[in-house]
Design brief:
Chain lengths: ~725, ~170
């Protein structure tokens, strides 16, 4: 581990009523996991710009959480990384959310990256401050540092039993240099990491005290609801506000805009003194939309377009081995199958919302966003302001699953506030949320496999046909090449199948339907075809699907361990009574391996999903109970996508509008879930997403084993 | 607009709103209690569940005119971080919440369930709680927490028969 670039700096000491304050912050350059410590300028101290660790001489310890909490647990996990090395217990700290300032590094909750990328930097930050506090105590006592140790926010002198609280040491410690290479704890000495410790946000969330974006109140604010073209991309031809203005509470109606990454469209906004009035006023609007080419927004036509592309040869991903075409042509047995996944909505429980206050030369935002740093950047660019003129306050997120990293709603609120010169709170209705996107992109997986006379798989090809998030959202030019982002879950690193001739290829299928990452992104769709097809190959080769996987993954011990554990915990080798069957799938995504074994049963009301046994190897853990919770969450979220309604676009509008026609899994459909975590000392992997990709194929494989019918398209039917 | 009297968590409010305004928005935007959440606006998800005279209702689809003068209880009236209801405590013990957004509604439904069925089975729970959606998928823990709360309420009864307040204050 490289630690040499920790800069030596003095800490800042402030005296007076606020007392001495020890502040340590660091910035993490993009794409780097190295930590750079730097001095926090005095101007940034205070309520607005807290550094990562604050200890004042009243004993208050504040740790900053740099990744917004959307349910994945960063409100605990990231402060715990600091606290472990700082030697403070979690009930001794206050937790504060970072506000997007550059000094905190990347603050985007996404890619299941929080713990695995912050694991070393945050621990080092804690360790550095602890060493300074210990040194300060040793200096005061005039004893060797080796005779001192830190525990529970105190430094002890071992031989004499004397102690100082951190608060008593802050002044002296702040004069010391920052250790260049702080010593990290041996994992066997961890007191917090790897333990089931109750999450500090739970008491807030069970009493209605936790503040979500939708709960923000700014004095004098107007509430907004926005009428949008059902065809998503339509512009306003004309609108009549007569009836709307008669609704008590409605203050203003105006033409507004929705700035999406790939296009900006016109909308009509109603602003009122309460949200209900805004919605009522919106219902009474008469808007004529400019004609839209609906043909470009038909999911049926898009599907046909993908199937047409499937007939053509695509562009190769990197990491192909052998010669697939030759091996396939020579194979004794050839298997070919096409799998299709539809568009899907995120449908987080908290509809997107934002409160904005444009004040002429600055703007302040309160919102449930996944990345406050990205919010500052995008809003500054949108308004032509400097980043320092944009202030973002991040609340708890009532779910996000990727959606709250797409900042159209924040820009809408900012736009309205600028127009009306007042704070504006914008809340999307559930109908807006479901029928306006962005969505998980629909895609096709075309798979081909060759088997020799002995039953060995000799050739394997996975061709992906999908729209590119990188292209539509981030304006990347694919230049006819394979979209490197699109092989998540099935690329050579994520799927190290030992087959001599493997090809992975790609076709870009263009659509204007707004798309975005959705929990586990491409892995959520790719793995369905990939892992279903491994079962199809096993059946064609006359092998048990578990045995074939153990054979194809024999050189990847972590995969083997997960498979064997899943088999053992689920009783995979034991025979089930008639009318029941099991199905298995495994995938690696976001540096974590997860396998599910589904047990399904025939009942009078169709097929029931009885049980899911999961095994996850995510390396070293922060909170095992939260890893189990996230895996349970992935099973439920993945099942909804696999067995419930897709998002479809026809006749000029998305056909799903609310939970009655876009149903999601409910408690009565919830199988028994059992999650096992592999205990090892590997580097931490992601947790928020890797449980999802194997859900649909494990279910599809179980359904095949139960019914003999192979389902290759969502929604999987439980019949 | 009309003057409407509401009793929320034992406190009387007189609010001046459109009588058709759903109770949800009256509670959130006028009374100012934010624990009750908006999820769908059509009684599909249960995030807005409150109690009307002790029984669960979907406040997003209940006009204030219908509930005027009657006893409304929200999540804030069930318990506080310092004085938790047995159901809230069970939710903490089972670490149910993830994003937490739907949990006020889940807890309001669970409190009402335990009043009707002090010892519910899994099937009772599934039947009663299926109106409450959770996109984080905390359902298995909801089941466990309801069983735990049921046990703790049963245990507390003989010891503190007089002290035990009704589930829905």
């Amino acid at each position: 581990m490289k630690t040499s670039n920790i800069n030596r700096r003095n800490f800042l000491k402030t005296s007076g009523s606020a007392g001495a304050l020890l502040a340590l912050g660091f910035s993490i350059p993009a794409q780097s996991e190295d930590v750079v410590l730097h001095k926090i300028p005095q101007t940034t101290l205070g309520l607005e710009f807290s550094p990562y660790i604050l200890i004042d001489d009243t004993g208050k310890i504040t740790l900053l959480n740099p990744r917004p909490d959307m349910g994945q647990g960063t409100y605990q996990s990231l402060p715990a990384l600091i606290a472990e090395e700082l030697e403070v217990s979690l009930d001794q700290i206050h937790i504060s959310q970072t506000n997007g300032q550059g000094k905190y590094g990347s603050q985007l909750s996404g890619g299941s990256s929080s713990v695995r990328t912050r694991w070393m930097p945050l621990r080092k930050a804690g360790a550095a401050v602890k060493e300074m506090l210990v040194q300060a105590a040793a200096n005061k006592w005039q004893v060797p540092v080796s005779e001192c140790y830190a525990q529970e926010a105190k430094v002890y002198h071992k031989p004499s039993g004397k102690s100082f609280t951190y608060a008593e040491l802050v002044g002296d410690a702040s004069q010391l240099p920052v250790p260049k290479d702080p010593k990290l704890k041996d994992p066997k000495d961890f007191k917090l990491l790897g333990k089931n410790i109750p999450k500090p946000d739970v008491p807030l969330k069970v009493t209605g005290q936790a503040q979500f974006g939708i709960d923000v109140d700014v004095p004098g604010m107007l509430y907004a609801s926005i009428e949008r073209c059902p065809a998503i991309h339509g512009n306003v031809a004309s609108f009549d506000t007569t009836a709307t203005m008669k609704v008590p509470g409605v203050k203003k109606v105006l033409k507004a805009e929705r700035a999406m990454p790939h296009t900006t469209v016109e909308t009509v906004a109603v602003l009122a003194t309460n949200y209900w009035a805004a919605v009522q006023g919106r219902k009474k609007l008469k808007v004529k939309w400019a004609p839209v080419n609906e043909a470009t927004l038909s999911t049926e036509k898009f599907s046909a377009q993908m199937h047409e592309l499937a007939q053509k040869d695509g562009s190769d991903f990197e990491g192909n081995t052998g010669n697939f075409a030759k091996a396939y042509s020579e194979a004794a047995k050839k298997v070919q199958a096409t799998y299709e996944t539809p568009f899907a909505a995120h449908a987080a429980m908290e509809p997107v919302n934002a409160t904005a206050w444009f004040k002429g030369d600055s703007v302040e935002i309160w919102a449930p966003v996944q990345g406050p740093d990205g919010t500052i950047g995008e809003v500054a660019q949108y308004l032509g302001l400097k980043p320092e003129q944009v202030k973002v306050n991040v609340t708890f997120l009532g779910g996000a699953f990727g959606r709250k990293a797409y900042l159209d709603f924040v820009k809408e609120a900012v736009f309205l506030s600028k127009q009306v010169n007042a704070p504006v709170k914008l809340i999307w209705t559930r109908e807006d949320d479901m029928s306006q996107g962005p969505y998980r992109p629909a895609m096709l997986s075309v798979l081909e496999g060759g088997i020799d006379e002995k039953g060995n798989v000799t050739a394997f090809h996975h061709k992906i046909i999908a729209e590119s998030i990188q292209k539509q959202v981030f304006k990347a030019d694919l230049k006819g090449k394979a979209d490197g982002w699109a092989e998540e879950g099935i690329g050579s690193k994520d799927s190290p199948l030992q087959i001599p001739n493997i090809r992975r290829s790609y076709h870009n299928a263009s659509t204007d339907l707004p798309i975005l990452w959705w929990r586990s992104v491409y892995a959520s769709t790719n793995v369905f075809g990939h892992e279903s097809f491994v079962d199809e190959l096993a059946h064609a080769a006359g092998k048990d699907p578990l045995d074939l996987r153990l054979e194809l993954l024999k050189d990847s011990p972590r995969f083997v361990k997960v498979l064997e554990t899943a088999a053992e915990k689920s009783g995979y080798r034991e025979k089930l009574p008639a009318g029941k069957a099991r199905g298995l799938a495994i995938a690696r995504s976001f540096s974590t391996i997860c396998a599910h074994v589904f047990t399904v049963a025939k009942t009078a009301d169709g097929v029931k999903i009885e049980k899911v046994v999961s095994v996850i190897d995510c390396g070293m853990t922060v909170n095992p109970d939260n890893i189990k919770a996230q895996t349970e969450s992935n099973i439920i979220y993945g099942l909804t996508a696999a067995i419930k309604s897709p998002i479809t676009f026809a006749n000029g509008a998305v056909e799903q509008t609310n939970f009655h026609n876009y149903p999601v899994l409910r408690i009565n459909e919830t199988p028994v879930m059992e999650v096992h975590i592999i205990d090892n000392q590997e580097a931490p992997g992601g947790v928020g997403e890797p449980g999802l990709p194997p859900v649909a194929p494990a279910l599809a494989n179980a359904l095949f084993n139960l019914t003999g019918k192979r389902q290759r398209k969502y929604p999987l039917e439980l019949v | 607009m009309a003057q409407t009297k509401l009793t929320v968590n034992g406190k009387a409010y007189t609010i001046d709103v459109d009588p058709e305004m759903p109770l949800l928005w009256a509670i959130r935007d006028v009374v100012g209690l934010k624990g009750t959440k908006f999820g769908c606006g059509m009684a599909q998800c249960g995030a807005c569940t409150v109690h009307l005279n002790g029984s669960p209702i979907r406040s997003c689809s209940t006009p204030v005119s219908v509930v005027k003068g009657q006893k409304i209880t929200t999540i804030e009236g069930i318990g506080t971080p310092d004085h938790l209801h047995a159901v809230q405590q069970a939710w903490i013990d089972e670490q149910v919440t993830q994003c937490g957004y739907c949990q006020s509604g889940q807890i309001m439904s669970a409190v009402a369930l335990l009043k009707e069925k002090p010892k519910p089975t899994d099937e009772d729970i599934d039947l009663y709680m299926q109106g409450n959606i959770c996109r984080c998928g905390t359902y298995q823990r909801v089941r466990k927490a309801i069983h735990r709360a049921a046990d703790s309420i049963q245990e507390a009864k003989p010891a503190a028969a007089k002290k035990t307040a009704s589930l829905d204050r």
